[in-house]
Specification:
binds coenzyme A; Aminopeptidase; 7-stranded mixed sheet; globular; alpha+beta
Length: 164
């Protein structure tokens, strides 16, 4: 059974392998991370761990039994009971409900572990799979997302109010 785990220094090689293997797949629907992300991966990874330590973000990885990373699920700008959600799932397990089940699980953790009561996510108009994931996980559209929110694309903000 894959497990959702808080991002840890030991996950770095598996996270890099996940990002490299799926780079073209992700870039078909969301902004590419850019060469700099891969060239300076260790620095960027350590900066993420420091942000997580500070409590402003909470990063999670979905780890398969063999230690490979199947997905990344992140809470950004955690403050005053709100946070922004981001996620990406490996092409090799696409369409099996992995994103939907894990977003639901992260909603529970967001409240229990991070005090989040309102979770928001933006997705572009052309990202039908992500729109479907959010709808299945109980999010509702609340307004337009700008190209500044979505790396150059237009889309929609979704929101889910969570129960404490
Ligand atoms: C979006 C993403 C996370 C979905 O992961 P996943 O594990 O395949 O998602 P799920 O299997 O839980 O659900 C996908 C749903 O989208 C549907 N879907 C997939 N591609 C679709 C398409 N082109 N048009 C319409 N629906 C589509 C699937 O049929 C499924 O819905 P269903 O259960 O009603 O059949 C994954 O594709 C991904 O990582 N994409 C790149 C990064 C990204 O877009 N992140 C989100 C940023 S907001």
């Amino acid at each position: 059974m894959p497990k959702l785990k808080p991002l840890h220094a030991a996950h770095a090689p598996a996270v890099l392998a996940f990002e490299l293997a799926n780079r073209a797949y992700f870039a078909a629907s969301i902004s590419d991370r850019g060469d700099d992300f891969f060239d300076r991966f260790t620095d960027r990874y350590n900066a993420s761990l420091a942000e997580q330590e500070a409590g402003t973000c909470a990063f999670y990885v979905l780890v398969a039994e063999d230690g490979s990373v199947l997905g990344r699920f992140n809470l950004y700008d955690v403050q005053d009971g709100t946070a922004r959600l981001g996620y990406r799932v490996s092409e090799r397990v696409a369409g099996r409900g992995v994103a939907t089940a894990t977003v639901r699980e992260l909603c529970r953790r967001a409240t229990e572990m991070h005090g989040v009561l309102t979770l928001r996510a933006a997705t572009s108009h052309d990202n039908a799979a992500s729109q479907r994931v959010l709808a299945k996980a109980g999010f509702v559209p609340v307004g337009p997302a700008t190209p500044a929110d979505l790396g150059g694309k237009s889309g929609t903000w979704y929101q889910r109010d969570l129960q404490p």
